[in-house]
Amino acid sequence: MTRKNIAQQVEFPLNRAFTFVESGPVLLISTHHNGKSNLMTVSCHASMGFEPTLGICLGPWNFSYAALTETGECVVAIPPANLMAHVVDIGNCSGETTDKFPEFGLTPQPAVDVKAPLVAECLYNLECRVVNRSLVNEYNFFVLRGVRAWHNPAPTDARSFHAVGDGTFIIDGEVVNLRRKMTKWQDCI
Ligand SMILES: Cc1cc2nc3c(=O)[nH]c(=O)nc-3n(C[C@H](O)[C@H](O)[C@H](O)COP(=O)(O)O)c2cc1C
């Protein structure tokens, strides 16, 4: 097979490579600690299995860090695209000085298995417990296990959004259904 007009790959700055592998969707992490609920924005995370298990990178400079390390629980919420500007603002202020639920017009709802609240406006909420901290010191990487999941049946916007990592975002677009080709994985879909 002859290939024509194939552009040569151009080296990309290694310290920017996270921008093309950064996973999505952007998450809100809800915590409850010392009588106070808080939210932070997280885009560095990884799906680790169908349990569901996921890893989040949450640095010690965040107010939420003490809440997560000391309570060992949180809610992972998936915000809709029409809350994008608020989600960015939530990731640019601290729970130490800002009461983020009322400040950003978000509604805390009681969870069942953890003290951190669900975020009513979000598309999904996953109550989680920290199940592994072995990579926290080196990578700020907490492994979470979902214990109960929630879905918003009437969202104002059903699209989630993804962070590129440089202050730009990608809103979910077309959904392509290839379930008929998932012959080996019928039990999973
Ligand atoms: C789009 C976006 C993505 C972010 N992703 C992360 C992340 O993956 N890990 C992290 O530790 N902080 C991340 N941050 C920063 C925190 O959300 C930010 O430090 C926030 O103010 C922490 O809130 P807190 O101090 O109330 O916990 C992100 C911020 C934005 C705007």
Descriptive report:
The chain is an alpha+beta fold and 189 residues long. It has one domain: Electron Transport, Fmn-binding Protein, Chain A (Pnp Oxidase, Chain A, Roll), CATH 2.30.110. It is 15% helix and 33% strand. It has five helices and eleven strands; from the N terminus they run H-E-E-E-E-H-E-H-H-E-E-E-H-E-E-E. It has helices at 18-21, 63-71, 84-90, 100-103, 136-139; strands spanning 27-33, 36-42, 45-49, 53-57, 73-78, 108-109, 118-119, 124-135, 141-151, 161-163, 169-171. The strands form three sheets. The protein has a seven-stranded antiparallel beta sheet with strand order 2-1-5-8-9-4-3. The longest helix has 9 residues, at 63-71. The chain starts with 17 loop residues before the first helix and ends in an 18-residue tail after the last strand. The mean pLDDT is 93. The chain binds flavin mononucleotide. Flavin mononucleotide binds next to strand 2 and helix 2.
